[in-house]
Amino acid sequence: MTWQILLVLSVIMLMMVGLIFEWARPDLIVFTALAIFLLTGIVSPEEGLQGFSNEGMLTVALLFIIASAIQNSGIFNRIMVNVLGKKSRGTLALLRMLVPVSGLSAFLNNTPIVAMLTPVIRKWCEDRGISASKFLIPLSYATILGGMITIMGTSTTLVVHGMLLKNNNEGFSFFQIAIIGIPATLIGLLYLVTVGYKLLPNRKGREFDRTDNSKDYLAELVVEENYPFINQSVEQAGLRQLNGLFLIEIIREFEVISPVRASTLIRKGDRLIFTGEVSTIAELQNTKGLRLDPASDISIEQLINAENQVVEVVISHQSSLIGKTVKTVNFRGKYDGAVIAVHRHHERIRGKIGNIILKPGDTLLVLTGSDFNIRQNMNDFYVVTPIANPFISKANIKKGWFTMVTLVITIGLVTCGFLSMFKGMCLEVILLLLSRTITIEEAQKALQFKVLLIIASAFGVGAAITQSGAAEWIASGLVKVGQPLGTLALLYIVYFLTNLFTEFITNNAAAVMMFPIAMSVADAVHVDEIAFALIITVAASASFITPIGYQTNLIVYGPGGYHFKDYVKVGLPLSLMVMVLTVTIVKFVWIG
User: What sequence ranges are listed for the domain RCK C-terminal (predicted)?
Assistant: First the structure.
């Protein structure tokens, strides 16, 4: 083992530990690993930065824009409400949901699909007294399975396709992976509506906690005539920097002021609604002219009016809020929403709201203002509560259908070989911009730069694994262990390692790290590279066992009221089925 191999393996080990324990945002961790390889000369700037111009990565960026155009139209929401129906229940309703969802995810990024449909399905379940926990994990799993049907179904497939092209390989054809994806989807859906449905918990999600524990979230003080700061601002009254408490709303006769600004004036008779560490309200109660109303039965539902809503949002893996406090990010000023509470792993975080450091997967209870719909950003968080959206109109629905129709035509051109995948998506985005289906500003907002940075940086990390000799060194070890047992054993080993990585780090990083190793194994045993590329693609996508391995699993974690063990119980059998199916098909179709 050379010092280059030792350095590369050490850095990658640290990178993986950092990703698992969330030392920083994933994009920063992967980019830092790449920077180390550049600074130490393991890779040249051309090799290390190749991912920033890779066709697969750029195609992913274009797909973000296309998905945003469909998401903004609200067309999926209407379709899903009609698909679920008014009278269907149980496994029938589940099947009616899973079939179209898996079909849609074959042609669109699965993350926005799950983000769009989670609040719709929660509302549908709530209206019928059905537990959303029976539907949300299957929603996530169905999009993952459906994403394995085409080259554009997941970013992972496009990334591996891009790496194959760089290796002077033809890459995947549009439906090549469907040989595995369609059987895997059919078997997976059958499992989810039978055995999986019985294994899923039957419990209420976060909404149950929200309505039943209002007194844990809220406290109310009444302003009396002897309060010394009447007609002065909130900041002058010293209510802006309280120990453990946060002023989120003022109720004044028939007027509701929310979110409360520093310049808001305090009037006699105002009802001040605080959130945070409610137990510390006694200290504020001792202030002259502020009276705690013992008869107060203020609830979160009472905060809602024509302009304000209470919604739940889940912090995404690529959020710019990660590692920062609610106060530091100026959540109220940035998104026009006041954070009422923060939950992590089904437990409410106690203490002053403004001092809580946010992490991926945190669920925030937010009292929104009138501008929240405009300011919200899916790059930072996913809204998992149904919210009224005044911008979903007939015109938007028409834009949604235009996007769908032109996308189908473009896919047809790609499938027939008239255009490459990248050129086809370029054409689609140009059509959307020229037709004003999406604006330049909306397209820029849709680009998830942190995800793209992970993918681009991971290409450089993969180059370091190859250039240092680490890929060949690891591959020779795998071949020594697996070759005596046959090629089938090697396929299982590569699949297992990739799938293990993807459960604890990002799927794209797992695919890019394992790709050079898999290619070295393929060369060593004289097997078609496409065979091992397909193994890597499916294994990196098929993340069913943990909520942290795949973005869609994280989105439904809190809203479904799930525990970590629920993913293991339901996802492990599915993961094993997909692994056996994939390896078997690859062995007999591509190897023989």
Answer: 206-290, 298-384
Please tell me whether residue 164 adopts helix, strand or coil conformation.
helix
Burial class (CB in 10 A: 0-12, 13-18, 19+), 517: buried
**In this structure, are residues 522 and 476 in contact, taking their beta carbons and an 8 Å threshold?**
no
Block means of pLDDT (10 residues each) for the chain, length 592 residues?
A: 90 89 85 95 92 90 89 76 70 88 90 86 82 92 95 91 86 93 97 95 58 62 90 88 78 80 89 76 77 65 66 85 85 82 79 81 83 79 71 72 92 91 94 93 87 90 92 90 87 94 86 92 92 95 89 87 91 97 95 81
Amino acid identity of residue 84, one-letter, is L
| Cα–Cα–Cα angle for 565, 569, 575, rounded to 5 degrees | 120
Q: What is the dihedral of CA 87, 89, 91, 96, to 10 degrees?
A: 30
Contact 298, 214 (CB under 8 A): yes
* Bridge pairing between strands 245-252 and 309-315: unpaired
Q: CB atoms < 10 A from the CB of 178, how many? A: 18
Cβ atoms of 331 and 337 within 8 Å: the answer is yes
Tokens of 576: 């094993």
Spatial neighbors of 144 by CB under 8 A, at least 6 apart, are 105, 110, 154, 541, 542, 543, 544, 550, 552
- CA–CA separation, 342 and 209 (whole Å): 12
Kindly state the tokens that stand for 323.
């590692």
Could you tell me the sign of the dihedral formed by the alpha carbons of 460, 463, 469, 475, in that order?
positive
Strands 271-276 and 245-252 come out as antiparallel
